[in-house]
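Reviewers of the previous submission asked for a worked example of the structure-prediction workflow described in the proposal, so we include one complete record here. The input consisted solely of the amino acid sequence. No template or homolog information was supplied to the procedure at any stage.
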Amino acid sequence: MPRVRIEKIIAGGSGLARLSEGMVVMLPFVLPGELVEIRVVRRFRGHLQAEAVEILEPSPHRRRPPCPLFSICGGCDLQHAGEEFQAELRKDLLTEALRRAGITPMQPLSLLPCARPLAYRHRLRLHLADDAGLGFHRIRSNRVVPIESCPVAAGGINRVLRTLHDHPDLLAGLAGRCEEIELLQSPETGEVVMVIHLRTGKKLSRQTTGRLEELARHSGPAIDIRRGRVLQPLMPGRPVPLLRQAFPDFDGYRLEWDSGCFFQANAEQNRLLVARTCAMAGEVHSQRLLELHCGMGNFSVPLALRGARVTGVEQNNRSVRFAGRNMAAAGLSGHCLIRASTRIALARLRKTGEQFDCIVLDPPRQGLGPEVALLAELAAERIIYVSCDPATLARDLARLTTSGYHLTRLTAVDMFPQTHHIESVALLEKN
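From that input alone, the workflow returned the following structure tokens.
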């Protein structure tokens, strides 16, 4: 069997190596510098997909993974490395993505480390197989690996997960009707909300509904039923349960939302992300500030508390409603919230000649895309770009830096320990 030396970790978490004739090999669960005996599992035109048969020379940063399902479950991909080295690998992935796009920050890339590398996730989405197995997809497969607990999930989520596995009859009743089960833990209260994602055209039997109601009464999780875009509580007439996060050291405000809204899975790191974003915004008192993908006000509320006149844009109707509620709860008024896609909102703002001193955006993984051109035309002095994907961030920053902006600061936020994913926040200033 061939042997290769791992050169680096690439986007997606795999290691990259080369055969003696130069062919690129990609394989999971290895670390830079390791000598590995491999078996080729798939051939592509430009590279080979392989798996490690034996680690002949292990990295000094290699460790025993904390999860027994590591390398089977497709969730985490870096548990075999110590946490500090993991953070450096993620930072390198961000740096490499920028380098490939021809971008060099004016200041060195900084990193906000994560103090809690396990039990940090307040949101977990699980797949339910037709045979009632509840868990994550197996690596490179759609088969479900059943799990009874997850080391990166918060304690309340694991308690509910174990309870579900103690009720196989309930899971059997959901199988075939339910595609996914989402567990959300409120960062402030620890309460858990369970969201049942029903398949198109399916509904729950009366017996299964009764079992869910009994689970909610005796085990604690509030339960929502989601059919496509429609979200409703399991028991009609009851309000949809809320999740909350307090920011006691940061203006003392509180955000609340329901299971139909996006929120950062790592609540502690979200506090650091919000603080760094506000610091990059600088003095915003009386300035006009536009936030794209504003959600339920994660950045809009603290920036408005600092005196900014905020216009928030968000497509999700529930998030817009909670953004308004969170603004009001913080004693804020006179701010504008627009329910629209980013593309439509930017086109309208440009057409009406709106001007902003600062723009903050936190797009989904696919980034901003073609809307970057519309963003640059608003000619704000500062743009703060929060990203969860280095590749799409680098792509969008490259477009902005050819439209009159330069990258002055970039901070990596270690939001997702045990995985290759990393959050970052970039500050661009007009030339």
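The chain has a mean pLDDT of 95. We consider this example representative of the routine output the project will generate in years two and three.
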